[in-house]
């Protein structure tokens, strides 16, 4: 059965913009990696979406990689069977080829600019580019303050946490769920979501697409990551390939873990990242903090939660301002782009992909 999945390679956080592009763009994983270059509004996302839709119509599995600045736009599209991907290689996730032409290649959408027309818009381009950058700086300052408050609450909660109980629960999961051997291969690293101009966006639908059995981990303070690390290590030892979804706030910690070969997922759920789908089992990490301890610090934790909410809202409002400025920038470029030329280029790339599919000799997937 053909499936489409949705992830992010970039995420907004209190640490600024977090990127997994380097992990994704490993030359060993591709036969053809197209790196799009060009301005805002020159058709990069439209080209990637058209390629993804055409490959889905052809019966191929397609992975859509969404933009954290605007989740309705794309940063990439991946066709696994072809070992092909198309990515936006512009700032803040600049991609440069390691093996030009042999693996990666530039696709220059700037070739379809009316250069003289855009030169005449220099003042507007500068104005809206700087406005967008300033809004992101404001967003990251607010999100950084929220992260500090949240980390303070997490440290307080951790002092009362029964980590031995968490380990025993983890051992039970490993004994029950991790059986047999996997097919091996490298893990994939993706963000399952991000804070965006539309608020928090988390693609739990992808977890459900890949994994029928979902463990919902109720974790208000980000204390479940040792459990997820142990499950991941055990899965790797048995050869099960994972989709590892780190936390944008703490990229060295796993926030969600998908094991498609086992049809098994572990997703974290808390305020601002609520999983409300069906759960095979629930792990209440919050309940591993004694009620008496929580009662002792209740007012402090509630105050921190309110402050985090206010600061996050301020940060997401600034992300909305960045999106509005980016829309204005796109509007400046649009009249000076030959979109028929971009459509023709897209068609030629699709023809190339069709020929490669035919060379595989398997035909369309059902």
What would you say this structure looks like, in words?
- The mean pLDDT is 96.
- The chain is of the alpha/beta class and 366 residues long.
- The strands form four sheets. The protein has a six-stranded mixed β-sheet. The protein has a six-stranded mixed β-sheet with strand order 9-13-14-15-12-16, with helices on both faces.
- Strand 13 and strand 14 form a beta hairpin.
- Helix 2 (44-57) runs parallel beside helix 10 and helix 4 runs antiparallel to helix 9 (298-333).
- It has ten helices and 16 strands.
- It is flat, with a radius of gyration of 22 Å.
- The protein has helices at 21-24, 44-57, 115-119, 122-160, 163-177, 204-210, 225-237, 291-296, 298-333, 339-360, and strands at residues 4-8, 10-13, 16-19, 32-37, 62-66, 74-79, 84-88, 104-108, 188-189, 193-196, 199-202, 213-218, 243-246, 254-259, 264-269, 281-284.
- Helices cover 44% and strands 21% of the residues.
Order of helices and strands: EEEHEHEEEEHHHEEEHEHEEEEHHH
- How many separate helices? 10
Oligomer: single chain
Helix content: 40-55%
**Order of strands side by side in the largest beta sheet?**
1-5-6-7-4-8
Rg, Å, rounded? 22 Å
Are there runs of 5+ residues with pLDDT below 50, and where? none
Strand count: 16
Strand count, sense and closure of the main sheet? 6 strands, mixed
Approximate strand percentage? 15-25%
Task: Note the gap between the termini.
Answer: 6 Å
- Give the overall shape, derived from the CA principal axes: flat
Structural class: alpha/beta
Q: Average the pLDDT over all residues and give the rounded result.
A: 96
């Amino acid at each position: 059965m053909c499936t489409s999945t949705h992830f992010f390679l970039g995420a907004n956080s209190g640490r600024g913009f977090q990127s997994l592009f380097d992990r994704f763009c490993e030359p060993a994983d591709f036969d053809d990696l197209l790196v799009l270059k060009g301005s805002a509004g020159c058709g990069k996302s439209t080209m990637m979406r058209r390629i993804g839709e055409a490959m889905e119509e052809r019966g191929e599995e397609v992975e859509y990689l969404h933009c954290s600045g605007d989740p309705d736009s794309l940063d990439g599209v991946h066709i696994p069977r072809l070992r092909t991907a198309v990515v936006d290689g512009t700032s803040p996730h600049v991609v440069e080829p390691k093996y030009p032409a042999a693996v990666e290649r530039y696709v220059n959408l700037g070739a379809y600019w009316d250069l003289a027309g855009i030169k005449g818009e220099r003042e507007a381009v500068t104005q809206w580019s700087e406005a967008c950058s300033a809004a992101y700086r404001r967003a990251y300052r607010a999100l950084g303050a929220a992260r500090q408050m949240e980390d303070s609450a997490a440290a307080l909660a951790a002092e009362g946490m029964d980590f031995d109980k968490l380990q025993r629960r983890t051992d039970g999961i490993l004994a029950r769920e991790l059986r047999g051997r996997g097919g091996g291969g490298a893990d994939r690293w993706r963000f399952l979501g991000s804070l965006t101009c539309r608020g928090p966006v988390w693609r739990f639908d992808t977890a459900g697409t890949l994994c029928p059995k979902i463990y919902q981990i109720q974790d208000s303070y980000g204390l479940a990551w040792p459990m997820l690390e142990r499950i991941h290590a055990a899965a790797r030892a048995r050869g099960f390939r994972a989709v590892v979804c780190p936390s944008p706030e703490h990229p060295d910690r796993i926030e969600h873990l998908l094991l498609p070969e086992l049809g098994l997922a572990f997703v974290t759920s808390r305020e601002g990242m609520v999983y409300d789908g069906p759960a095979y089992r629930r792990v209440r990490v919050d309940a591993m903090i004694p009620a008496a301890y929580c009662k002792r610090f209740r007012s402090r934790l509630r105050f921190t939660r309110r402050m985090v909410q206010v600061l996050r809202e301020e940060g997401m409002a600034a992300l909305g301002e960045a999106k509005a400025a980016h829309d204005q920038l796109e509007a400046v470029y649009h009249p000076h782009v030959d979109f028929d030329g971009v459509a023709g280029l897209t068609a030629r790339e699709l023809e190339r992909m069709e020929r490669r599919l035919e060379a595989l000799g398997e035909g369309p997937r059902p």
